[in-house]
Amino acid sequence: MPVRFLRIIARCEDDLDYPIYIDAPVDEAGMIVTKGWLFGCMGKSLGDRLNPFIGRLDKDEPSPRFPFLLDFGTDFADADRFYWTNLILKRVRKGEQFTIRMPSEGEESGFGEFIYEMRDLIDIVLQQPIDGI
């Protein structure tokens, strides 16, 4: 099965200046291959708020709704370190939406759910934008 390595650039309507960048292997059906870790960062590319993370399947507390975990590392307090997402359940294509569940002070549960839309796809090997798989 051929795999392409893509950079997914997604934005949330609630904060367009705070995108997420994910480098992921994607199969010919447009699904992210989850056999290994994914790498990415979230935040403003110009400024002091670019936060790298490792993405992996959540094996500790798996959820059918949010099976994938974004781990921002030990520089973050435990309450802010982990975000969950359903990204791996979605096809990689422009316009596709996915949800990230993250700590949020404004929410009663302590977590908020934010919808991100895949805006740009870049073939990492070819260093070229693409429209689809």
What does this structure look like?
By secondary structure, the protein is mainly beta. 3% of the residues lie in helices and 51% in strands. The longest helix has 4 residues.
Summary?
By secondary structure, this protein is mostly beta strands.
Specify the number of helices. 1
Radius of gyration: 14 Å
Question: Roughly what fraction of the amino acids lie in strands?
Answer: over 45%
Number of strands: 9
| Low-confidence segments | none
Instruction: Enumerate the strands of the largest sheet in spatial order, edge to edge or round the barrel.
Output: 1-2-3-4-5-6-7-8
Work out the helicity level: under 10%
Distance between the termini: 13 Å
How would a textbook summarize the main sheet?
Answer: 8 strands, antiparallel, barrel
Order of helices and strands: EEEEEHEEEE
The residue-averaged pLDDT reads 88
Structural class: mainly beta
Globally, the shape reads globular
